[in-house]
Amino acid sequence: MTDPPPRRRLLRYQDIVDDWPAFLEANHAPEPTTLRVRQALVQVDELQRRLRTQGFSLGEVPGLPDYLKVEDGPHSVAQTMEHWLGLLHVQQSVMALPPLALAPQPGERVLDLCAAPGGKTAHLAELMDERGPLVAVDPKEKRLRGLMSNLFRLGCTNALVVAADGRELPGGVTFDRVLVDAPCSAEGNYRKQGGRLPKRTREFQFYITELQTALLRRGVELTRPGGSIVYSTCTFAPEENELVVQRILESCPVTLEPIALDLPHQPGLTTWEGKELTPSLSRTWRVYPHHLDSGGMFMARFRKDPAAPSPAPAHPAEMGPDGGPSRGWRPVPVAFPGEDPGMAWERIREALRLLHEEYGLAPEALDGLGWMVRKENIWVQTAAEWPIGSWKDHGGWRVVSLGLRAFRSAGAGKETPSNPFLGRFATYLPTPDDPAAGPRHRSVSDEELRNLLGGGALQDPPLPAGPVVLHHRGRLLGRGMVGRGGLRHEIPTAQSRRLGVILQAQEGA
Q1: Identified catalytic residue from 114, 156, 184, 234
Q2: Is 234 a catalytic site residue?
Q3: Is the pTM of this model over 0.90?
Q4: 430-509 has which fold?
């Protein structure tokens, strides 16, 4: 099958789009830049104020109160300290829909089966108030790095990142809600990609629909009876949307539910190419670029039959506190399997002492936090429970991260705080001019910061040897280290380069 040019590919949808002229106009117009506000760290009004003082013009996104549209600005909004500090995430507004449709609640067990690059995962975490386990799965190393980069920058504390093929994720646990944002032909990104589309040959169509069906089927299998599943793609193709959903309706114990969002959309197709489809497919959503002035999206929300068989606990340890099955979930231990719990507690106690006595962290910052030691790292998490004990007899997966890396051992009993941890809890740390700051906080000027980022050091005898917290213009930057050569920054290379670009953008503005 020869793949037609991108514009001609869109013509196959002319008879099913509700407003074809508006569809074409939106697809061939530049897509506006939108961002999601990280409301756990900053209020929408405050972020607007900060960005407007830098010359940005912002507007609302109707129906999405935590999103803002960048109407104008001196440079990319990604080249701001607010982005660097994790106060915002640049994201198409249409990408908000799958997390909102799934509607996870605090304390629930949630699975993101195709998580990278992490924008939807971070949104799920925020909707959960970062309470309860959020298992984020992806099989590819490069994509996992991008996923963790976003989760760490945004300071998400309840995500358990797992390297695995979602089709082969082990059983032994079930989830309350599952998101399957499946790989697809990405036709909904036509305008974002400047009118370019990946090839869609007959071989690709067979491969991608089989992959989507397998991922969605596995998502259903891992959902508890009565639980919810959202399937989403960013393509217009019915073969990857309604036809995949129909396969699942015919083979799995699920029904389609209405999507409880008040946003513009078109109901899913109930006929395609002369074939009658399941009438309940009208409950699915087709979101076209002209609906939200964004990309394209398809969504379906399923409910698993409450009478579907529930996996029995494999052993008594999987019984919940009320005598019912915990579905394989267990409290996150203080020591990763194979680590010494006694030594783990010693390291955690020392880390807590440092936070209070030397960094001045407010005690309330630690409310609800759990701690776990894995090799040289101490992780902080709000997942509270995980499925690892129930997965131990299965291969093909590995734990990548849990929450945020809080401390790393520097040897000789010394613990060094991480940049993601300092950034996430910056509001609970004193500023250098605060009497409670102690000796491990240092404010740097623009010139001093340029010197540090250029590889230089500051000669600052009053600072004690070891890690310090760097501040700039009243905002926490990250970690520095005082040694024999003076004070140097310890911000990872890629991030320090981005910080240099941000400084240049600010000076240019």
Answers
A1: 234
A2: yes
A3: yes
A4: 2.30.130
